[in-house]
């Protein structure tokens, strides 16, 4: 992970919840500068930190926000959305049959052809070769048992897993607001 002293090329801003925690670690909760400036003018966020860059209009100028916090708290205890991204994150971006982390797809544990549904409890991350080898069979029929059973994670579990996959870069103004509850090196 690279810590940047200059702003990211797209001047994204870190978005914090009203309690000053990131809304998400993976993907890191950032927004394009245009959306952030609009949110500032709409009064939805407070500017916490800025870049050394100013933007101008005919009637005003302002420093570009690098960190903002929401004025209204968003509850993080809500159930996570059932998305491809969240399934991959739950399964730590690795095949649940062989463990590799390349060419990943979804696998229905109980195949759709046998009445399986697309749900948290029936979808696993699988590499394409394992998915093809398993085909339209159950794990028992294919003699391919997954390392973990599929389950619906909590938002807290996804956030914890997300911390294991840091972004490619962080701006130095973001550091104080990330990983604040991890142990400090002594």
UniProtKB/TrEMBL annotation:
Ranges where the HNH nuclease domain occurs: 84-132
InterPro entries (alphabetical): HNH_5, HNH_nuc, NA-targeting_endonuclease
One Pfam family in the UniProt entry: HNH_5
Record SMART domains: HNHc
Gene3D superfamilies in the cross-refs: 1.10.30.50
CDD domains in the cross-refs: HNHc
PANTHER family referenced in this protein's UniProt entry, alphabetically: OS07G0170200 PROTEIN (PTHR33877:SF2), SLL1193 PROTEIN (PTHR33877)
Name of protein: HNH nuclease domain-containing protein
Species assigned in the record: Asticcacaulis benevestitus DSM 16100 = ATCC BAA-896
């Amino acid at each position: 992970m690279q810590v940047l002293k200059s702003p990211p090329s797209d001047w994204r801003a870190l978005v914090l919840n009203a309690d000053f925690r990131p809304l998400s670690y993976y993907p890191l909760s950032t927004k394009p500068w245009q959306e952030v400036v609009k949110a500032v003018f709409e009064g939805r966020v407070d500017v916490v930190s800025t870049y050394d860059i100013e933007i101008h209009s005919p009637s005003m100028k302002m420093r570009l926000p690098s960190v903002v916090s929401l004025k209204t708290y968003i509850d993080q205890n809500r159930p996570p959305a059932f998305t491809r991204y969240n399934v991959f994150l739950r399964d730590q971006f690795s095949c649940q049959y062989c463990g590799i982390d390349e060419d990943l797809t979804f696998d229905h544990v109980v195949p759709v052809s046998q009445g399986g549904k697309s749900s948290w409890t029936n979808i696993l991350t699988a590499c394409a070769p394992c998915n093809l080898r398993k085909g339209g069979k159950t794990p028992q029929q294919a003699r391919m048992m997954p390392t973990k059973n599929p389950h619906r994670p909590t938002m807290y579990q996804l956030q914890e897993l997300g911390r294991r996959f840091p972004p490619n870069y962080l701006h130095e103004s973001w550091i104080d607001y990330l990983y604040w509850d991890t142990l400090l090196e002594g």
